[in-house]
């Protein structure tokens, strides 16, 4: 059976001889198929090349970004090193100032005061002290003049009304156990109870003081001074003139405590004495206390 074919006629350009070439259909179709395959291959290679070029461009952009980030990191590291160096210089300068002026980073005193409780006030406590300083009306340059007007200099007034939680003298330490000396008396009070000064005097301390918490110390003259500890708020500042019965603070539970109360102590010549000795003529002491409260036989708290 004869297959259909195409006839291709070729003529020579010199002698004009003609040649006929029979091209079967299948051969022509095969050539066309190969051409299509070639076109698809070229298109595939071209698309692969374009994708590769796009990836290379993205890689170059990322490389530039990485270089930029590395440069920024080096700049930040250099700035951090400079800041650390400046901080070290400031710390060295602070140490030199501390040595030159005798500043200390912690309180000195009995072990039961410095070992417990934080020594640095919080931001709110610092702001509170600032507000009191801004509004207080006093003069530290006229203390002697103010003391000359003091008439009630014997601390014979209860700072607040309440039961005795812990007595003056030997007692059991509520934190460490065993026998310990208690330099004052602890009087039960809810947080925020007004605390009154026991006699006329000058405030010498009004700040956060380790295990005492917020503390007010008032000097009354003749070597007598009174301490009011574990306060929640201070209403006076150092150097302020106060009179007997004046509210100087609010009771609280700051410092080294087991429960809210007021720590009250009296000192003579810097040595703690039994507060009941100065309250022997106090009308408040006679009406607010009973035999079960004195001579300070209950025990609890700090």
Briefly note the structural class of the backbone.
alpha+beta
CATH top level of the largest domain is: Mainly Beta
The end-to-end distance, rounded to whole angstroms, is 125 Å
Sequence stretches where pLDDT stays below 50 over 5 or more residues: 137-142, 283-302
Largest sheet: 10 strands, antiparallel
How much is the radius of gyration in Å? Answer: 47 Å
Gross morphology is rod-shaped
Mean pLDDT reading: 77
Number of strands: 14
CATH topology description of the largest domain: Glucose Permease (Domain IIA)
* Proportion in β-strands: 25-35%
Query: What is the multimeric organization of the chains shown?
Result: single chain
Task: Give helix % range.
Answer: 25-40%
Strand/helix succession: EEHHHHEEEEEEEEEEEEHH
Per CATH, which architecture of the largest domain? Distorted Sandwich
SSE blueprint and pairings:
Blueprint: E1 5-11, E2 18-24, H1 25-101, H2 111-114, H3 123-135, H4 143-147, E3 164-166, E4 169-172, E5 179-182, E6 185-188, E7 194-196, E8 201-208, E9 214-221, E10 224-234, E11 241-242, E12 247-251, E13 261-268, E14 271-273, H5 275-278, H6 283-288
Antiparallel strand pairs: 1-2, 3-6, 4-5, 6-13, 7-12, 8-9, 8-11, 9-10, 10-12, 10-13, 13-14
């Amino acid at each position: 059976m004869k297959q259909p074919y195409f006839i291709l006629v070729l003529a020579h350009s010199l002698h004009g001889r003609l040649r006929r070439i029979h091209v079967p259909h299948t051969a022509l179709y095969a050539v066309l198929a190969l051409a299509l395959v070639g076109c698809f291959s070229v298109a595939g290679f071209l698309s692969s090349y374009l994708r590769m070029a796009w990836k290379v461009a993205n890689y170059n952009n990322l490389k530039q970004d990485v270089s930029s980030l590395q440069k920024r990191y080096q700049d930040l590291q250099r700035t951090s090193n400079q800041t650390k160096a400046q901080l070290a210089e400031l710390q060295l300068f602070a140490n030199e100032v501390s040595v030159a002026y005798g500043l200390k980073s912690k309180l000195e005193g009995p072990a039961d005061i410095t070992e417990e409780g934080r020594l640095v006030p919080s931001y709110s406590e610092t702001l509170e002290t600032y507000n009191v300083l801004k509004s207080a009306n006093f003069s530290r340059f006229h203390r002697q003049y103010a003391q000359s007007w003091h008439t009630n200099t014997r601390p014979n007034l209860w700072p607040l009304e309440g039961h005795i939680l812990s007595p003056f003298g030997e007692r059991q330490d509520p934190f460490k156990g065993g026998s310990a000396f208690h330099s004052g008396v602890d009087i039960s009070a809810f947080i925020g109870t007004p605390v009154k000064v026991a006699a006329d005097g000058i405030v010498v301390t009004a700040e956060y003081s380790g295990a005492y918490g917020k503390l007010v110390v008032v000097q009354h003259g003749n070597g007598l001074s009174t301490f009011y500890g574990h306060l929640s708020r201070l209403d006076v500042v150092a150097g302020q003139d106060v009179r007997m019965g004046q509210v100087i603070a609010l009771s609280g539970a700051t410092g080294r405590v087991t429960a809210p109360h007021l720590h009250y102590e009296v000192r003579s010549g810097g040595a703690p004495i039994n507060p009941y000795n100065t309250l022997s003529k106090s009308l408040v002491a006679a009406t607010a206390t009973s035999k079960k409260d004195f001579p300070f036989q209950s025990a609890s708290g700090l």
